[in-house]
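REVIEWER CHECKLIST
Item 1: Sequence provided? yes
Item 2: Single chain? yes
Item 3: Sequence as submitted:
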Amino acid sequence: MRNQPELKVFVYGTLKSGYQNHVRYCQGVIRVERAIVWGRLYDLGVGYPALQLPETVILGHGTTNPVVDVRIQAAQVVVHHAYKPLERPFGDWGEVHGEVLTFGFPPRQLEGMDRLEGFKPGQRSLYERVLTVAQWNGATGPVWAYVMPEVQGSKRILEGRW
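Item 4: Structure as written out by the authors:
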C-alpha cells in the first residue's frame, strides 16, 4: 500500500499550538514544527494577525476540495523535490515565524480552517489560502498558508512573530 500524501499548513496566529483555535481546528495534527516563510506580518488590532506574501513565492491557490488541495501540494513536492533554502525575495519582505502543521489524509481539518479564515474560493474572502514555500527543521517545501490580500490601517510586526 502506497503512503498517502500529508497536508502541511503554515500557521502564524491563533492556529499555532497553545492558542485557542489550535485546539478547536487542529485535532489530529501529526506534527507541529517551527517554521518560517518570507512575507509581512501585521497586527490587525482585533486579536489575530494577517500575513502577506510576495507574488513570486505563491505556487498555487486553494480550492473547495481538500483532497485536490493535498494533491496539488504533493505535486509541488515532486516537481520541486530539491527545494533550496529560502532566499529573500526582492523588496521589503522579512521572515515570518510560525509553525508547519502536518495532517494525515484525508485532510478533514482543512474545511474547518477555511471556515475560520473566511476563505471562499472564487468569492470575495477575508483570507485566501495559497501554496507557498516554508522552511522547517532543515527542510524546505510547499505549505498552504492563509494570506490577507489587502491590509490597511494595521501595524506591521517587524520581528515577524505574533
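Item 5: Key structural point noted by reviewer: The two ends are 41 Å apart (CA to CA).
Item 6: Recommendation: ____
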